[in-house]
Design brief:
two-stranded antiparallel sheet, about 140 residues, alpha+beta, Nuclear Transport Factor 2, Chain: A, six-stranded mixed β-sheet, 8 strands, globular
Length: about 140
Amino acid sequence: MDGKTQAMRDGMAKTIDFDRLARDWIAAWNAHDLEKILSHYAEEVELLSPFVARLTGRKASVVRGKKALRDYFRRGLATYPRLRFEFIRVDPGAGHCVLEYRSVNRLRAAELMEFDEHGKIRRVMVHYFGQTVGEDLPASLAVRS
């Protein structure tokens, strides 16, 4: 597989180079460039992550819409000023991919990213796993290896 796929809706197609997208996404996070990070997401994005409740103080683990995502990501960058992600791999699918990387406190993260017809992330589900959970993620949310 060449790391590319077509995202289609209503007969429109956009070729997505997942390898490039993953590396650009990681670079944007490592630069703490909020605008560049957000450039990867659709306006009506939905993000599900166990970190949402932790960072927002709400019970829900979902963020809906780019405006709310901006606030959530801004809070995350402020909470983790030394945040740095390390690319592990990207697995392409049909209009979606799984991006695996090292995250906060060296937790392994895997994000299932679904793309719209413009090649923007419209839905993302974030999973964390690793041998050491750390205080930033409650043990009850982690899957131990």
